[in-house]
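Annex B, item 7. Sequence and structure tokens for protein A, then protein B.
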Amino acid sequence: MMSAYIKEINQELQKKLGKKNPNALPKLNKVVLNYRVTEGRDSQELLAAAEKELMAISGQKPRLTKAKKSIANFKLREGESMAYKVTLRGSRMYDFVNKLFNLVLPQLRDFKGMPLTSFDQEGNYSLTIHDQTYFPEVNLDLVNKIRSVQVTMSISASSIEESKMLLSTLGFPFEKN
């Protein structure tokens, strides 16, 4: 199913961009999910609950990231647990992107589309969903704290315009001008 989906998207992009070589088309390389758990240094139960939530959202076991250096202003010590991180590739990535574009983003309160200004210089797109309960896999009875999920889509494109074209072809809801 995924290969037919990618073929269809590539054909549409070839028409829009006028490129004949399929290797020159922009592609979605990976999707990285970051799930901050600031209270993780105090309670192992909260860390375990956050890990289960992110595992349900992504369908993959997350990796615990730790602080690289101490920052006194944030009461952060070197080696303390900070966040969970998941990198999705292949079919899991496309399944997550489909769920994000068609189920999660349209549910957001006062949703009028995602901003066009969240691209970096390489054409990657970042967004933050401020409530993890928008994802259908999260069990609302087990949620002990509302956390935000940061999503970064890494795109191999030669320009930001090509990245926008790829995301809009995939069905990403950009805000209308």
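Protein B:
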Amino acid sequence: MFTGIVEETGTVAAFTPEAAGWRLRITARVTLGGMAVGDSLAVNGCCLTVARFDAGSVTFDVLEETRRLTNFPDLAPGAPVNLERSLRFDGKVGGHFVTGHIDGLGSIRVLEPRGKDWFLRVQAPAGAGRGLVLKGSIAIDGISLTVAELGDDTFAVWLIPHTLATTNLRQKKPGDRVNLEFDLLGKYVEKLLASRQS
């Protein structure tokens, strides 16, 4: 479980095919603190298990299914990735509850300054609009954000300077793909209502 509050932006060192899947190595600093093999780390919002680490990097084994369902195929050496350690029971929940299980891929349609703020519009997968609520929560590449505008399968958020400074959004552009995780509570409500109707 995560909160969508990105702790640092790491850098992809290598992402290579292996006999049993893929191996992803990321250089990092802050998120290596207190790390142990088997820990969960959110990488662009996707929960991965630490396979090995050293003083300056962490390595994960990535399933083909995970690669297929995320923006990981876009990762090349040097790419920035958002990192967050899993939530501790004695920690703060500054964002919202994020599981690290990606619901789908979005595509950036607009990312531009408007006045003193930045505006981001994302095209979500077809039918995803049902999982979006005005003023509700959305995780974009693992970043907890608030939905400010809704279209059919598009939504928009406003970004504060801190978010741009501490996440990989500062290097994104229109057309780039982003991992999306819709609000956990909304998914449970949708499931319960669907079961009552059937």
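Comment on protein B: The chain has two domains: 8-85, 104-197.
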